[in-house]
Amino acid sequence: MAGAENLLLVGGGLAAGAICAAIAIAPAVAERGGRLPISTGIVLILVAVFAVGILSSLAAMVAATKTPLLEALRTD
């Protein structure tokens, strides 16, 4: 369940950021008579950011599940 939540948060955050960035540069692109610069490089960056976000959240989940919960609560 935590993995699905992290997947949703990373994906939603990445989508929201990409949409906001496209909206922010749209006036400048329209002024020049062009189109939004969607290329292979941008897609690779989005995939890399998504992969790093998922891998880091998985690493955090693994570290959290290996921590003895009862001992951690007792020390607090």
Helix fraction by DSSP (H/I, runs of at least 4): over 70%
Number of domains: 1
| Percentage of residues in strands | under 5%
Mean pLDDT: 87
Major sheet: none
Q: What radius of gyration results from the CA coordinates?
A: 19 Å
What is the number of E strands?
A: 0
H and E order: HHH
Task: Determine the N-to-C terminus distance.
Answer: 26 Å
How many helix segments?
A: 3
Structural category is mainly alpha
The stretches of 5 or more residues where confidence is low (pLDDT under 50) are none
Polypeptide structure, described:
By secondary structure, this protein is mostly helical. It has one domain. It is 84% helix and 0% strand. The chain has 3 helices and no strands. The protein has helices at 2-31, 40-66, 69-75. α1 (2-31) runs antiparallel to α2 (40-66). The radius of gyration is 19 Å and the shape is elongated.
